[in-house]
Q: What sequence folds into this?
């Protein structure tokens, strides 16, 4: 069974060794930011709704040093296909950078561009244990890790919520994904042993304890990769939601109800109606799920997860056969409270809530019955982005 691939220390050691081999000097700055799994509240963030993610012990780490020039040299350890693993660009004078040809480097460039302060030249390498295209928010973890690295490099700290908004801008403008705020928010504000219940309208949030040792959150990667910027499905869903809200005369789907939607059924085409129905019901489910989690009512929480999956599959059309199969198998296993796809969809991961004593048998059954090859993570809720200077010192 594959659990978490790297401890932070192992990942940092890997980054330091890579940095030394490329730049022929020791680094003096490191920062990390986590990936996330969303427990419930999918495709609700850009509709001003609720989300309930937790940060994962899978992180992106950036390791480097100022280089006394105005040039930025970065190198990634990730599998970036045919793209070169090294990139160079100038430090911005006034947020004047533009996206370039290298997809992976654009996330770094975006955070540099939107950083609230002057960025000097630097050298850095990036290593990560967040699977790319796995729906665990590898993009936000890279943006937020970069931003946190720049805070240490410049000594200039940004307010935490503002930092999440600036990293979201980086994704909008440099990766061309009109994402909501969930991923950057949890990457910045995640807390150990807690899920984060966020109201995406007011941006107020509450931490919900997730510290029971007899209950497990199992993240299962279908290993069907999907990149949100490789198709326009995400942007299409977002505009369908805006269209539905407009037709109902409300500012966002957060302000709509099922009865209002029914009343406007004739003004909406069938697809737009279904998209809005998912979002309106998902916002309600997420609010109820957060209440259930606070009370330790895992049966209710699990049923809401299942309903969320069926709604994403049938109304929002963002699941895929592999994710559906993983959910179906999980729901047949003893001790499972609920299971659903997590993240943007079209591939990536499922999240399953179950009893600790049933984890091994559940994993075995999924390995036997799943038509693909899955990767399993027994996840503990983790902390948000941080500088890793103390850890760096301890290993140099
Ligand atoms: C992606 C986006 F980046 C998030 O903002 C969110 O909309 C999610 O898909 C779906 O809930 O991760």
A:
């Amino acid at each position: 069974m594959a659990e978490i691939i790297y401890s932070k220390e192992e990942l940092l050691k890997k980054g330091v060794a890579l940095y030394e081999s490329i730049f022929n000097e020791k680094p003096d700055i490191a920062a990390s930011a986590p990936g996330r799994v969303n427990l419930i509240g999918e495709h609700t963030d850009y509709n001003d709704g609720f989300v309930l993610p937790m940060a994962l012990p899978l992180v992106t780490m950036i390791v480097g040093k100022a280089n006394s020039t105005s040039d930025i040299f970065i190198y990634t350890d990730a599998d970036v296909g045919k793209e070169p693993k090294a990139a160079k660009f100038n430090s911005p004078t006034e947020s004047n950078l533009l996206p370039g040809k290298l997809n992976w480097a654009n996330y770094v460039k975006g955070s540099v561009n939107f950083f609230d302060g002057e960025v000097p030249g630097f050298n850095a390498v990036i290593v990560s244990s967040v699977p790319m295209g796995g729906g665990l928010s590898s993009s936000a973890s890279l943006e937020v890790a970069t931003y946190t690295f720049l805070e240490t490099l410049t000594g200039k700290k940004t307010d935490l919520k503002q930092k999440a908004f600036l990293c979201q801008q980086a994704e909008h403008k440099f990766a061309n994904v009109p994402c909501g705020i969930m991923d950057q928010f949890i990457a910045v504000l995640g807390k150990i042993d807690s899920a984060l219940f966020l109201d995406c309208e007011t941006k107020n949030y509450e931490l919900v304890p997730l510290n029971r040792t007899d209950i497990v959150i199992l993240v299962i990667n279908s290993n069907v990769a999907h990149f949100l910027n490789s198709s326009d499905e995400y942007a299409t869903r977002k505009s369908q939601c805006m269209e539905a809200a407009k037709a109902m005369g409300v500012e966002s789907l957060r302000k709509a109800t099922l009865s209002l939607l029914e009343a406007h059924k004739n003004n909406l085409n069938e697809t737009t109606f279904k998209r809005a129905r998912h979002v309106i019901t998902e916002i309600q489910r997420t609010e109820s799920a957060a209440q259930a989690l606070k009370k330790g009512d895992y049966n209710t929480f699990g049923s809401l997860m299942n309903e969320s999956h069926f709604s994403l599959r049938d109304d929002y059309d963002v699941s895929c056969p592999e994710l559906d199969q993983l959910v179906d198998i999980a729901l047949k296993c003893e001790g499972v409270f609920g299971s659903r796809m997590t993240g943007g969809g079209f591939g990536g991961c499922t999240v399953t809530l179950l009893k600790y004593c049933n984890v091994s048998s559940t994993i075995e059954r999924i390995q036997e019955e799943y038509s693909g090859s899955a990767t399993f993570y027994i996840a503990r809720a983790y902390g948000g982005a941080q500088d890793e200077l103390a850890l760096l010192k301890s290993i140099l």
User: Anything to note?
Assistant: The chain has two domains: 8-37+54-189+382-395, 215-379. The mean pLDDT is 95. The domain at 215-379 is CATH 3.30.70.890 (Alpha-Beta Plaits).
